[in-house]
Design brief:
The protein is mainly β. It is built from 2 helices and 17 strands. The strands form 2 sheets. A 14-stranded antiparallel β-barrel has the order 1-2-3-4-5-6-7-10-12-13-14-15-16-17. A two-stranded antiparallel ribbon has the order 8-9.
Length: 316
């Protein structure tokens, strides 16, 4: 297990840089389905998560992202299915993504390997109150290079992922999104948007340090083949209830992590996670950091009770 984690880390370190087109999260352990359709249903449960990120506080037009991920283990289809919806806003630009995922499950050694695609749509929109140097705004703008009013374009989006997890707490995933790469344009010829293919690597392990304490290191890498971002986290979890920890995103931020898990009477579990990014890039002069809040609820459905039949020997 240590060799697998070390190999993934070395590959990731060889790619390091930063800048991304897709939405960014610090608590990536809540958003696995968002980037890897192979994850759907591998936990053998029904799960739904909601996460909100307010990035680079105090910076005008700063990115804000709201995302929902839901997945379920469905034995009748040989694996799991999932749904991802997220809305990402940055200044005048907003991106809406809705996609369905399917994961075929294979028992491999001590764990389960999920393999599958995602398919959905990707919408890019521009809508803002533009201002030219002479002070004209809105419909008063006559520059043909400046779109006025709303302008949006929608296209299909396809992804593919592999995700492997064991009951002992090891997981490794690799995936890609935006297949194929596309250049889309709106009604304004000048409104063109290049959707770059992204590649993702994730890995983590739960180490049982004692009867009450677990240590959970995890790694997350995102690349568009021209720039790459690497994040490393380490959490300490007490009694499967409270966790706290720290992370580092290369050339971007130190991350503080805290969370709470509550077991419900019906056997389900509710998780609440919060993170705060302390910006280390040049943006730290303009922003005080980034907030992120996550909620997740999972439950394992009870298998249907077996109905026993018997025959009266008199009618055999």
């Amino acid at each position: 297990m240590k060799k697998i984690i070390t190999s993934v880390a070395l590959v990731a370190m060889g790619l390091v840089a930063y800048a991304q087109q897709d939405a960014q999260f610090s608590q990536n352990f809540f958003t696995k389905l968002n980037t890897n359709p192979g994850y759907a249903g591998v936990s053998q449960a029904y799960c739904g998560s909601l996460i909100y990120r307010d990035q680079w506080l105090n910076l005008p037009g700063n990115p804000t992202t709201l995302a929902f991920n839901g997945d379920a283990y469905l034995p009748m289809i040989g694996g799991g299915a999932g749904l991802t919806v997220y809305d990402d806003k940055l200044g005048f630009e907003s991106n809406l993504t809705v996609k369905l995922a399917y994961s075929f499950h294979l028992v491999l050694g001590p764990g389960i390997l999920g393999i599958g695609p995602s398919i959905g749509f990707y919408q890019v929109a521009l809508n803002g109150n533009w201002m030219t140097p002479d002070g004209k705004t809105g419909n008063a703008v006559t520059d043909p290079l400046v779109p006025v009013g709303g302008n949006s374009v929608t296209t299909y989006d396809i992804g593919l992922g592999l995700y492997y997890a064991t009951p002992q707490g090891l997981y490794v995933g690799i995936s890609t999104s935006h297949l194929p790469q596309q250049t889309i344009s709106g009604s304004y010829k000048q409104f063109q948007y290049d959707i770059a293919r992204h590649y993702f690597v994730m890995a983590g392990y739960t180490y049982n340090a004692s009867a009450t304490w677990d240590l959970i290191p995890d790694l997350y890498v995102e690349s568009d083949a021209s720039s790459t971002q690497l994040q490393l986290n380490l959490r300490a979890e007490w009694n499967k209830t409270i966790w706290f920890g720290a992370g580092y995103r290369m050339n971007d931020a130190f991350v503080a992590l805290v969370g709470y898990q509550m077991t419900m009477k019906n056997g389900g579990g509710l998780k609440i996670g919060y993170s705060f990014d302390f910006t280390t890039s040049d943006l730290h002069e303009y922003s005080t950091g980034s907030h992120e809040l996550a909620l997740q609820y999972c439950f394992t459905p009870k298998p249907p009770s077996k109905i026993e039949y018997h025959q009266n020997p008199r009618f055999l």
